[in-house]
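One such shown below:

_____
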Amino acid sequence: MSYIDIQNVSRIYQKKKQAFRALDQVNLKIDRGEFLCLLGPSGCGKSTLLNILAGFDKVSEGSITIDGTPVTKPSVKHVTIFQNYGLLPWRTVEKNVELGLESLSVPAEKRQEIANRYLDLVGLKDFAQNHPAELSGGMQQRVAIARALAVDPEIIFMDEPFAALDALTRMKLQDEISAINRRQHKTIIFVTHDIDEAVVLADRIVIMTPNPGRIKTIIPVDLHGQRDRTSPDFLRIRDHVFAEFSLKPADKTEYYI
């Protein structure tokens, strides 16, 4: 039995007396500890699917179970990281990381210990007493990642968390979250529209198409733990993804067999 089981899921919204089908008959199985990227253009339903998985939205048809339990609402065992970081500006970096631990009634001394451990993991231990406004966007996103990891979640949902960052910062954070995942073995569902980002991060890439949102294909990313953006294997998979979006000539398909 798969850890996350998505069966025949559709999501239909009513807009001005008309039905809009955001997702249509989505079927997907995700293993525990897998890093899965949902990849596709705007309007393909990838964020809708993520919100349903996280319990923020509900299916119109079909079902989703996580570890055998139907998803009906958000869970304390699952955290979501968004583009806008979600940090509280009046709290220090350390206190922002402690936020989820407070909701779990972790004692103050233990909260501080855990917060500092994860700030060290993302390279921000020296900034524990700073406030978010004193940090760059990339540093703020690392605080959000530390806060997510601090509560030891079973699943991390990430909705284009690096989209607003400059290219170099984005690449650095991609490498960091990939390295963290190899050490922590968390189940991560990551929404992106960036092909290189998906190849850098994912164990599998789920390519979605819009109007309505459907799964077109699923591409395994077998890079043997190496995510060198210049390696032949990386470029081969990257070109495969481009081909799925018809961004490469059809006669190149023989290259991927």
About this structure: Residues 84 and 161 are 8 Å apart (CA to CA).
